[in-house]
């Protein structure tokens, strides 16, 4: 198990200028013939990656090669003495039906699909499967026309037809691309078609390919695709560059979607949506993922990554672009709140544990383990900071420079940095540390007012705690957006400061002493700000004109008082509701009409996992009991206000998925959660029966499942009976039970693990049960250790069939050091049990061993 190191990067010995692929497709035995036109690029033998391929023949410049001319091992085919220009032809047999890893060519339902990022192409044919080898592709396919009438690949279609019951098609992609962007689909699908005309007049045929019967649920995805195409032209001047853009949906998929050139392949969960079966959140996820994959056409496909260490170059940048797109479609403040919520709940956690790694890692055992929130979400924050530091206009020019300079090439994060530096006088040298240093910086501050000089001085300090392999940290370049408010909350000054030192002071000449400072407005850097007083937080929660900080101040205030209550609970004292929290929630309800979506966010108390992050020794039981007690006490104390909001926002049409309608439903459902806590399940039961769409239905069910009894059983039964034939909705049925607070959740999850509808080959179903269960801290951390055992059992079962998915679940045990000694022992024992398994995958081995280190 040797790590791959960034420092060992070497250019490939050969470039592939052109590749012709010929597929005789059949589920159990597919023959792949490849013809590679090679050109020498650097010294060394020709090394082709290949895994689980049965080599049938190999020839060089038309001459068959005997097995004395090459070396073949489990992972590669190496040929010495290849001329500087050569044509290599190989023929291999593969078995897609036996491919349960869902990377390479695999079967899903009755179709054949590929997933090649990051290293799946090597399971299709022998090839230098690395992103800095960019080739032009021509693809021919043949398959049984009865089972596989639709044959798709990248680029433009040259021909297709049926002869003697055999379907055939030929595709050509004019753009050079790395092998990870190759895609093929052979299936019995139908399509929703549309078209888009680019701003320079290119007519693009759009197709979304799904199973028969699902066409009616593709309209939202198609709308999102067209909106994304237009937005990228308007905002970044980036236009689509082929005549066809296809999306194919597949039920069995390891991730959300894949940006293959001209043929995106999507998890059905991010394509199919109608109000009956999909929640508002699902609609937004479809919009976001469609946009994300479309935006990769330029940030990923046209400009790709030199090696996988640069993964955030495309992923961080593309997440940033999809965040901006979503922010333009809906409310910018609410979008920022949702993004920061996610960052804190996932990336900040990872950054504080044994799996912490920089945005550009220096080493990995298994690249599939590095599709993390650090690469994606922190990577997006890093891109956002460039913009905050140099300004919007300069950033846009920097993007143009980056794309112009690296078009059709494989780039590094230095190339992105250089493009940004090329258009600004601000010295960005220090900024590269954001890519190299792991960990979340902590910021503390001091303020002073000089009455005589009428100056206000703000002193900021930064510190990043040690992370694995990085004991010492250097100070980062941190943009700090601030607002100075007067005593009544009006803004008297706003500016973005650049913090470069470990400690640095900034002085402002002001007409009056400020009442409060609002720091890190719109979350201008991914840091933890410490040391704000409760009085300050309450003031900002009521007055800050930066909506993000107004929300954040309330969250920080609520965290502080709930953590106090946890401490009180631990010494056996009863819960009492903090008056300040009650007042802030009451104010939010009073103000709700102004921005219902914002109010809905502000009403959600800090998540249990977030409260846990601020405890030295996490006490999942106390955290849960206190948070529930607060919800109940608030529901009781503000009963009339919650009832009023619940009634007032009842009028959104069930199939209206506009921002205001979604905001109204979100607010109403937030109120429902307090009302259920305070008054029992009657409201939820009524909403369940009356629900006009899935958002209302699922919110009602979520409240109902917390209480064992007939109301819960009949709702779960009705939901199952209505939706048992819709896989995506059935996933919700699994999740809602795994997230439940009910006393019997553990035994129910155990039973669901062997339910007839549980399907280990389907990652969505596994995530619906096990992913949701690990996101239920109170139940997962049950002090018996049964939750840990259940997880480890799943990891070991899944590791045999789908190591990518298995390994992801190991991270749930990664924070074992944060718990009491009993839980520590139980979690550690499960990690050790996983590691003791012989023939553990590299994926699971890497994460389990790092978690224990
Ligand atoms: N770039 C894509 C990543 C992806 C992926 C990674 C590992 C295994 C399966 C996968 N499917 C897709 C998706 C994206 O970020 O756009
Ligand atoms: Zn992506």
UniProtKB/TrEMBL annotation:
Keywords, alphabetical: Aminopeptidase, Hydrolase, Metal-binding, Metalloprotease, Protease, Zinc
GO molecular function: alanyl aminopeptidase activity; metallopeptidase activity; zinc ion binding
Domain Peptidase M1 membrane alanine aminopeptidase per the UniProt entry, residue ranges: 221-432
Pfam name, any one: DUF3458_C
Catalysis: reaction(s): Release of an N-terminal amino acid, Xaa-|-Yaa- from a peptide, amide or arylamide. Xaa is preferably Ala, but may be most amino acids including Pro (slow action). When a terminal hydrophobic residue is followed by a prolyl residue, the two may be released as an intact Xaa-Pro dipeptide
The protein's Enzyme Commission number: 3.4.11.2
Superkingdom of the organism of origin: Bacteria
Domain Peptidase M1 alanyl aminopeptidase Ig-like fold, chain residue ranges per copy: 439-530
Broad class of enzyme this protein falls into: hydrolase
Ranges where the Peptidase M1 alanyl aminopeptidase C-terminal domain occurs: 535-853
InterPro entries: Aminopeptidase_N-like_N, Aminopeptidase_N-like_N_sf, PepN_Ig-like_sf, Peptidase_M1, Peptidase_M1_dom, Peptidase_M1_pepN, Peptidase_M1_pepN_C, Peptidase_M1_pepN_C_sf
Domain Aminopeptidase N-like N-terminal: start-end pairs: 32-181
Cofactor(s) recorded in Swiss-Prot or TrEMBL: Zn(2+)
One BP annotation, GO: proteolysis
Family: Belongs to the peptidase M1 family.
Name assigned to this protein: Aminopeptidase N
Source organism of this protein record: Acidocella aminolytica 101 = DSM 11237
Taxonomic classification: Bacteria, Pseudomonadati, Pseudomonadota, Alphaproteobacteria, Acetobacterales
């Amino acid at each position: 198990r040797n790590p791959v190191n960034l420092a060992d990067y070497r250019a490939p010995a050969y470039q592939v200028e052109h590749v012709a692929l010929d597929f005789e497709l059949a589920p159990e035995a597919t023959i792949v013939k490849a013809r590679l036109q090679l050109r020498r690029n650097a010294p060394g033998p020709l090394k082709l990656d290949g895994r689980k391929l049965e080599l049938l023949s190999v020839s060089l410049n038309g001459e068959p090669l005997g097995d004395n001319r090459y070396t073949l091992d489990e992972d590669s085919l190496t040929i010495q003495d290849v001329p500087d220009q050569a044509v290599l032809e190989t023929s291999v047999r593969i078995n897609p039906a036996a491919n349960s890893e869902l990377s390479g060519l695999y079967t899903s339902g009755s179709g054949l699909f590929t997933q090649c990022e990051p290293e799946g192409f090597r399971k299709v044919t022998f090839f230098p499967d690395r992103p800095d080898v960019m080739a032009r592709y021509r693809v021919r396919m043949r398959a049984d026309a009865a089972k596989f009438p639709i044959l798709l690949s990248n680029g433009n279609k040259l021909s297709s037809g049926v002869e003697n019951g055999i379907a055939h098609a030929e595709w050509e992609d004019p753009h050079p691309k790395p092998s990870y962007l190759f895609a093929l689909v052979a299936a019995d699908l139908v399509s929703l078609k549309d078209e888009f005309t680019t701003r320079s007049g290119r007519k693009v045929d759009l197709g979304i390919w799904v199973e028969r019967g699902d066409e009616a649920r593709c309209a939202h995805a198609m709308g999102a695709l067209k909106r994304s195409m237009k937005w990228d032209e308007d905002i970044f001047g980036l236009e689509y560059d082929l005549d066809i853009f296809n999306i194919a949906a597949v039920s069995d998929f390891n991730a959300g979607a894949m940006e293959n050139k001209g043929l995106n392949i999507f998890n059905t969960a991010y394509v199919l949506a109608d109000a009956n079966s999909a929640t508002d959140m699902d609609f937004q996820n479809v919009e976001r993922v469609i946009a994300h994959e479309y935006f990769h056409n330029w940030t990923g496909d046209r400009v790709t990554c030199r090696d996988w260490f640069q993964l955030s170059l495309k992923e961080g940048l593309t997440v940033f672009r999809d965040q901006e797109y979503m922010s333009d479609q809906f409310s910018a403040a609410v979008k920022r709140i949702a993004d920061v919520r996610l960052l804190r709940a996932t990336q900040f956690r990872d950054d504080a544990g044994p799996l912490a790694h920089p945005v550009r890692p220096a080493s990995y055992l298994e690249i599939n383990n590095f599709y993390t929130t650090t690469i994606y979400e922190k990577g997006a924050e890093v891109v956002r900071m460039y913009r905050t530091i140099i300004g919007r206009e300069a950033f846009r020019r920097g993007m143009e420079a980056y794309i112009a300079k690296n078009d059709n090439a494989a780039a590094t994060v230095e190339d992105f940095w250089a493009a940004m530096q090329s258009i600004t006088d601000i010295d960005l040298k220090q900024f590269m540390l954001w890519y190299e240093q792991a960990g979340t910086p902590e910021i503390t501050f001091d303020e002073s007012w000089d009455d005589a000089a009428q100056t206000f001085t703000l002193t900021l300090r930064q510190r990043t705690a040690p992370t694995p392999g990085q004991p010492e940290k250097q100070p980062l370049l941190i943009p700090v957006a601030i607002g100075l408010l007067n005593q009544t909350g009006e803004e008297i000054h706003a500016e973005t400061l650049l913090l470069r030192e470990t400690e640095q002071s900034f002085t402002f000449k002001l007409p009056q002493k400020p009442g409060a400072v609002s720091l890190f407005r719109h979350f201008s850097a991914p840091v933890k700000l410490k040391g704000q007083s409760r009085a300050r937080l309450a003031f900002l929660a009521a007055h800050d004109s930066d909506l993000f900080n107004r929300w954040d101040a309330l969250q920080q205030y609520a965290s502080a008082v709930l953590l106090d209550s946890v401490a009180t609970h631990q010494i056996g004292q009863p819960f009492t509701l903090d008056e300040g929290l009650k007042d802030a929630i009451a104010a939010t309800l009073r103000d709700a009409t102004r921005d219902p979506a914002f109010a809905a966010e502000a009403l959600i108390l800090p998540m249990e996992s977030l409260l846990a992050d601020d405890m030295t020794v996490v006490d999942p039981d106390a955290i849960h009991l206190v948070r529930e007690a607060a919800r109940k006490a608030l529901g009781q104390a503000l009963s009339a206000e919650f009832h009023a909001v619940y009634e007032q926002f009842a009028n959104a049409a069930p199939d209206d998925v506009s921002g205001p309608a979604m905001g109204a439903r979100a607010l109403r459902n937030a109120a429902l959660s307090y009302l259920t806590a305070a008054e029992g399940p009657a409201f939820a039961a009524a909403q369940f029966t009356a629900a006009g769409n899935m958002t209302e239905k699922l919110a009602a069910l979520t409240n109902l499942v917390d209480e064992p009894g007939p109301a819960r059983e009949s709702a779960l039964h009705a939901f199952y009976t209505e939706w048992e034939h819709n896989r995506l909705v059935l996933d919700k049925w699994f999740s809602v039970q795994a997230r439940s607070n009910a006393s019997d959740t553990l035994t129910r999850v155990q039973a669901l693990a062997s339910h007839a509808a549980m399907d280990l080959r389907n990652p969505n179903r596994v995530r619906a049960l096990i992913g949701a269960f690990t996101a239920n801290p109170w139940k997962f951390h049950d002090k018996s250790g049964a939750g840990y055992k259940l997880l480890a059992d799943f990891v070991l079962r899944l590791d045999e069939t789908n190591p990518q998915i298995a390994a992801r679940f190991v991270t749930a045990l990664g924070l074992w050091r944060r718990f009491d000694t009993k839980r520590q022992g139980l979690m550690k024992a499960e990690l050790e049990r996983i590691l003791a398994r012989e023939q553990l995958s590299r994926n699971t081995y890497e994460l389990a061993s790092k978690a224990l280190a």
